[in-house]
Amino acid sequence: MRELALVIAGVGAKPRFGLATVLSQEALAGWVGRGPSQTPPAYTVSSSGARLPPLFLGSLALPALTHALPRPAYTYSSSMPISRRHFFLGSLALPAFAAKKPPARPNLLLFLVDDLPAWALGCYGNKEIRTPNIDRLSQTGTHFLNHFVCTPAAGPSRATFLTGRTPMQTGAATSLDKILGDLGYEIHTEDASAASGFIGRQTAAKQFFLTVTSSKLSAPYDGVAQKYRDLYAKATFEGYVPDPVSANARAGKEMLTDIVGNVRKFAAALSELDDQVAAALAAINQKGLLDNTLIVFSSTCGSLLGRHGLWDSGDASDPVNMYDEAVGTPMIWSWAGRVPALATQVELVSSYDFAPTVCNALGTPPPGGLCGRSYLLMATGKPLPKKQRWRSTVCGHYQNTDMAREEHYKVVLRDGGKGPNEFYDLNSDPREKVNQTDNDQYVSIKTSLSAEIAKWKQQYSG
């Protein structure tokens, strides 16, 4: 049986099979032809023969945690070069990617929605919410399992995505709109419901940068078509066990009175967005622009949806929170001829890395003073140079709250460490249930992560 290698994490001077996630062609072909409620086959670790645990347990587990895996010196992605067109059109003839080399600067189609946690998508392991089109988009490119936003709130997080600047950095910022506009791109922002119409008016004669937004994933989920509500009218979400309402619940607190009923509304809104994504991708294909369009799908923040007894994102609690459900969002890249299909990356990346990466992809320098770093090599399946190891920690900031998160641990500091503070051992407590901030066993790692926050804020404030 032939196998498609999805991810190879290498350690040492040359890529080697350290972590290889494999999927048989037969299993892949069977999955692509299935209905929207189906999910891809389970991943396995082929180097040792041991199975890699699922990224989720039903719809319950947290997104993309790989705590049991050793950190590689770099990550190398390998996959069969399957054309995105054949995924979008439902064929698996397994041709080479595009025959023609794509132009140096592609169109940029950025889906940047609000309040969508990674764990809600099928391509991140969810088995109860139907997102077949976003899942297929993920299969045509690379998806990052550990993508975290700098700020768990839509407005400031969107600013970080588009400028690369942290919330602490003041003064004028140069956005991707300005950078791409100066390169001659047509700049436009459109709601997901109208994105296909804008694309239908485009030609190959002028490049465009389209940012697609959606507000329907934010409570109270009004305006969703009835046919999507009907999909979940009887859904019980058996794999979903919300927590008791928290005493410090704030934004979205009213949604906690009927958690399953409101999760149904969220699921309906997400399935409607999924169809709108499909319409936009179909328009790209119909206009003959598929081979020259970089497609990115992400979200400015997540949502707790009843977990931790909270509903919205960072503002769901008082004080604000930095739970993984609030800061962990999807990041999917698809670009014909440049980004390999069926690829997965496990390194920790941040929303403040996005602007530098786009600039890198377009061959233009990013603005100065940014803390982020381009992950283009990882997105395009290339190993990092040995002397340019990827960082092991990402940081976040919102109001009086700071976060440093690495593979195994997370620290949350408030008011410069005065508290209330939090510390989580993500190995033994991936759901962040037990606050270990006063446990002397973790003094060393807590001090180290706190120092990361202090260094980050000192360098990238003001």
Strand neighbour order, sheet with most strands: 6-7-4-8-9-5-10
Strand coverage percent: 15-25%
Count of discrete structural domains:
2
Question: For the CA atoms, what is the radius of gyration?
Answer: 21 Å
Describe the SSE topology:
Blueprint: E1 3-10, E2 19-24, H1 25-32, E3 74-76, H2 84-88, E4 107-113, H3 132-139, E5 142-148, H4 154-163, H5 176-182, E6 186-191, H6 195-200, E7 208-213, H7 226-231, H8 259-286, E8 293-299, H9 324-327, E9 331-334, E10 343-350, H10 354-362, H11 376-379, E11 393-398, E12 401-406, E13 409-414, E14 422-425, H12 443-459
Parallel strand pairs: 4-7, 4-8, 5-10, 6-7
Antiparallel strand pairs: 1-2, 1-3, 5-9, 8-9, 11-12, 12-13, 13-14
Your description of this structure?
This protein has 462 residues and is α/β, with parallel strands linked by helices. It folds into two domains: 83-394, Alkaline Phosphatase, subunit A (3-Layer(aba) Sandwich), CATH 3.40.720.10; 400-462, Arylsulfatase, C-terminal domain. It contains twelve helices and 14 strands. It has helices at 25-32, 84-88, 132-139, 154-163, 176-182, 195-200, 226-231, 259-286, 324-327, 354-362, 376-379, 443-459; strands at 3-10, 19-24, 74-76, 107-113, 142-148, 186-191, 208-213, 293-299, 331-334, 343-350, 393-398, 401-406, 409-414, 422-425. The strands form three sheets. A seven-stranded mixed β-sheet has the order 6-7-4-8-9-5-10. It has a four-stranded antiparallel β-sheet with strand order 11-12-13-14, covered by helices on one side. Strands 2-1-3 form a three-stranded antiparallel β-sheet.
